[in-house]
Specification:
The protein is built from ten helices and eleven strands. The protein has 324 residues and is an alpha/beta fold.
Length: 324
């Protein structure tokens, strides 16, 4: 029988994900020669060729991909075993580590933690701010147990390493200078703002979200100013420098709400309102851990409360991870 060495299989999976021996070595805190030695040993124990030369790099063979298809099931089963053992030892005690993007922390994570402190004081939550790419790297390496991100920047539901669940469809409202001619326009549509100067990030998720929303409304936004910080965007809108889309979660998370003297009119785009979708993900097989399931339920409750601001949403009940 072949020797299915879990450590070596994880190295092979990391090489598949990162593409080079050097990147694999850096991610696993190994030397490139150690990575090569481990994979050579794995190939010998399995009796197949796992890597082949491809220019100055290597690529996985068909046999390697076959091995990894089976290995993913093994990894998921080991995660389930860890979850069962943790449940046996700790129940709903212990610590759950959550990686989340910036606006999700005050709007979803903090309310969830506050609720858990009241209902399950023996369960601790450790929070780490991280955007999508970093959050999933942390999740894959085991540094966090749950990752929150926007769906557009999350692994697909078919990714064999992760299970994920939808938390919230976050509406995007438009911020205009208070004296803008359209600030009080009834039935305002995003398309009505096609000729306006826009404020959004020069790159990254928010740039993509803004441009995609505007393109779906039939125009390409003219970027007058680039900013990613919500307070900076808010100040520029108040100064009459342009208009911007603002996620409702940012308002719930503490962004200064419009009011008398704020200089900003925040309008709901009922006819063509864009939304961004927030998801949570865990390593496949780990979602049954009692503490993780309890944290996820609290996040669902926080998302349901947030959803009442803009839409009728989930009931905050138990979540079902997508596994395919």
């Amino acid at each position: 029988m072949a020797d299915w060495d879990i450590k070596k299989l994880r190295i092979l999976r990391t090489l598949r994900d990162l593409g080079t021996v050097t990147a694999t070595a850096e991610a696993l805190h190994m030397t490139p020669s150690a990575v090569s030695q481990q994979l050579t040993g794995l190939a010998k124990s399995l009796g197949v060729t796992l890597l082949e030369a491809h220019g100055r790099r290597v690529r996985l063979t068909g046999a390697a991909h076959l091995v990894l298809r089976h290995a993913e099931a093994v990894f998921a089963q080991l995660e389930r075993a860890d979850a069962d053992l943790l449940g046996y030892l700790q129940g709903e005690a212990g610590t759950v580590r959550v990686g989340a993007f910036s606006t999700a922390i005050p709007a979803l994570v903090v309310p969830a933690v506050q609720e858990l402190r009241r209902t399950h004081p023996s369960l601790a939550v450790a929070v780490r701010e991280a955007e999508a790419e970093a959050a999933y790297e942390l999740l894959a390496e085991g540094s966090v147990d749950l990752a929150l991100s926007l769906a557009a920047h999350a692994p697909t539901p078919r990714d064999p390493k992760f299970s994920r669940v939808s938390l919230l469809a976050d509406p995007l409202d438009v911020a205009l200078p208070a004296g803008h001619p359209l600030a009080a326009e009834p039935g305002l549509r995003l398309a009505d703002l096609a000729g306006e100067p826009w404020i959004f990030g020069s790159s990254g998720p928010w740039s993509q979200i803004t441009t995609t929303a505007c393109e779906n409304a039939g125009f390409v936004p003219e970027q007058a100013h680039a900013a990613a910080d919500w307070s900076a965007i808010w100040a520029m809108v108040a100064a009459g420098m342009g208009v911007a889309l603002v996620p409702r979660m940012a308002m719930a998370g503490g962004l200064r709400a419009p009011g008398h003297g704020s200089g900003v009119a925040l309008r709901v785009l009922h006819a063509d309102q864009p939304r961004r979708h927030v998801v949570a993900a865990a390593r496949r097989g780990s979602e049954g851990a009692p503490g993780l399931a309890r944290v996820l339920a609290a996040l669902r409750q926080a998302a349901a409360r947030q959803a009442t601001v803009g839409r009728s949403g989930g009931d905050g009940g138990p979540a079902t991870f997508q596994s395919d």
